[in-house]
Write a structure and sequence with these properties.
Chain lengths: 424, 424
């Protein structure tokens, strides 16, 4: 069966999944956990096949770490499933209840988005996280994972889908796509798919956006900044910068550009330079920075996303100049100020136009788990719908329900009746 | 100056408008009202030029009604401005406040989207409504109205912009585009414009969506349904159907397709037919409908948006069949059930996947003013961000603010510290 035919069936069953009780959806998550644990040995065997193939083809060690699905990863996803099952139901919440006129009541209730396509990197734990977030939020999901974990994805998906059906949810709640060409097929399904969430490189997300009419939620890049103010405490600043740069360099919330106030530069830059060198981080500075401490000189208008142990450094005179730089060169992802001056911090928090604006802490905190969302399907740099880490709340929409007794607009237009708008 | 240059300036000033106090933004609305009233005579003179041109070029009477900006329209927009000024500030609302660990606090606050482009039909009152909604919500706006009201738009825009500046808001808060080619220029500004709201025909909205990378909020069409259940009360059903079809035929929330339960068809269809004929509505039915009551016969798979005094009629056996038809052929705008059976109504409300799902009332209630939002910038059939009539709430996004004392992710990853997630 083609993806299109499968997704059409899914679309028809989406309202049934949407109407399922919170108890059944949570029970499905616990059943997934149970069955993953029961089939642990088989999962590890299949994962072994992926790892063997990775070794054959010379995949770098950093990537292999992501492909691996071992006892520790199984424990993590199991704990995540239990946590997610225990979270309150995101569906059917009344967010507005208003009497328009006597006995004529408007209600706004949360409901699932419908059918969501998620295209993600080769990480087996991501498959479990994403599918469980979709089930908890009552959304049907088409899942396409990285090809480097084909064997692991296949067994995980089978266990998850079987558990979901066994728990009493619709047969077509979940679908796995395995072939790369199926992505292009999925992009054409704008009458059946309500949302696409692509995870991966900038170029990939851009490709998806340019080749579909389906709404896309994804971040295109993460050029995060830290502004070291004149009133920064260097004892806090150095560890925060090191964490933001080195704790996980490949992450979109790693810092890429440091803006340092000119007043403290002569004192701060040498300390920063020493700390970065010790951590193996290469510094690229504008001319006045490298005049002071050496390093590679860069021009004043290109500040890239490195995703590596490299950082750009530029000097600014004021917090205003820092904000202008960030709003112009940043990607509206996550940006931080380090300062002990509360007024300057408040200005920065108000004026920076990013999904996350931080004071005196690492940009690496931008993450659904660290925000207490249980898990995330991604981090959005779009300003519409969900912004920042996207958990359950980002996977729901709402509808307006209006209940009357034969009301017609003509009566309100003629003045025979009138609205009184009483919030209930 | 080109649109691109103007919009770039706007983008830089957007954070300043976003940071302005609610008092100043509300005062600006009241100043707009005052100045519109003060310059009423000049506005009517300019509107006269548009009306004269419309008469010359033979614009139909129904359209001329929309172009007209007279004392009554002025009173309406003035009342709207007062109402909007009095609404609570949509900005700076804390929607989440959570301590991640001791003294380490995450807050989510509402903020404006930024720069919004609105392209709307030739209706001078729409210009006032849209610009005032944007100002109240702290958004910069690029406004492009229909060319048939060029003179009226120009004077209204000048009064509005001058009032906004006089109230103390940034100079580049509002911009008017007058030339059609400026729309294409605007579509290219994906680095400065955060959202486009096109209002108009299906084809026009589709054109915008297909020619820009800027997120678009708009409805593509409005094929609204009314399902007349076996348990419907004909005394309510006939007036509701007439209102939904005839109260304003050109509106997207007018009904286009009636689904009638087979059990009551023999009794109900003749009454319906008589009522529609009396109201001048042409009925187009599937073969079994026209076999019963005559009229033009249609095939079972094309149910268009007429925006005219025409309605499609089809028979169904059950509420389930009605729901399947609506979810398949509808546009997820607004759909209603007429029934006295509470269980059947509940099923319909749950299962229909539309922005508005109504019980025993006219589809014409789908409107920001009638929902008590003060006004609307449009009605969205997208499921992301805002769904249904879009008022102030649909014009804001949020950002996450995180305030710490030197926190690094490394400490949480190593287990030295741990999250406790306390909602404050």
């Amino acid at each position: 069966m083609t993806i299109r035919e499968e997704v059409k069936k899914m679309k028809l069953e989406a309202p049934v999944l949407a109407a399922s009780s919170a108890d059944i959806r949570s029970a499905a998550l616990l059943l997934i956990k149970e069955n993953l644990e029961k089939h642990a040995a088989e999962i590890f065997t299949e994962n072994g096949k992926d790892l063997a193939k990775a070794a054959e083809t010379g995949v770098p060690a950093a990537i292999v770490k992501r492909l691996k699905f071992d006892e520790k990863k199984l424990q993590d996803v199991a704990a995540g499933l239990v946590q997610l099952a225990a979270l309150p139901d995101p569906l059917g919440k009344k967010t507005l209840s208003r009497e328009l006129d006597t006995g004529f009541v408007l209600t706004r209730v949360t409901c699932p988005i419908g059918v969501i396509g998620v295209i993600f990197e080769a990480r087996p734990d991501a498959l479990v996280q994403i599918s469980s977030l979709c089930i908890k939020s009552g959304n049907c999901a088409v899942l396409k994972g990285g090809k480097e974990t084909t064997y692991t994805n296949r067994i995980l998906f089978t266990i998850i889908r079987d558990s979901v059906i066994a728990a009493g949810l619709p047969e077509h709640s979940l679908l796995q796509a395995e072939q790369h060409q199926e992505i292009d097929e999925l992009l054409e399904c704008d009458d059946c798919v309500d949302l696409l969430i692509p995870r991966g490189s900038n170029a990939f997300v851009r490709y998806i956006m340019d080749h579909t009419r389906i709404p896309v939620m994804g971040h295109a890049d993460g050029i995060c900044h830290i502004y070291v103010d004149a009133a920064a405490d260097p004892e806090k600043a150095i560890p925060v910068i090191l964490d933001a740069k080195t704790q996980y360099t490949a992450a979109c919330n790693a810092v890429e550009t440091l803006l340092v106030n000119r007043k403290i530069a002569p004192e701060f830059l040498p300390r920063l330079d020493a700390a970065l060198k010790e951590a193996g981080v290469k510094l690229r500075g504008t001319k006045e920075v490298t005049d002071m401490i050496g390093g590679e000189t860069i021009t004043d208008d290109v500040f890239p996303e490195y995703l590596d142990l490299i950082v750009s450094v530029k000097l600014v005179d004021t917090v205003q100049e820092a904000v202008l730089h960030i709003n112009r060169f940043g990607s509206h992802h996550t940006d931080a100020i380090l300062t002990e001056d509360a007024d300057i911090a408040a200005y920065f928090m108000q004026m920076v136009d990013s999904a996350g604006v931080y004071h005196n802490c690492s940009t690496r905190f931008a993450d659904g788990f660290r925000y207490g969302f249980g898990a995330e399907v991604g981090i959005s740099t779009s300003k519409l719908h969900a912004r920042g880490p996207v958990g359950l709340e980002g996977l729901v929409t709402y509808k307006y329900l209006l209940t009357g007794h034969g009301e017609v607009v003509g009566d309100f237009a003629s003045g025979k009746r009138s609205f009184h708008f009483k919030d209930l």
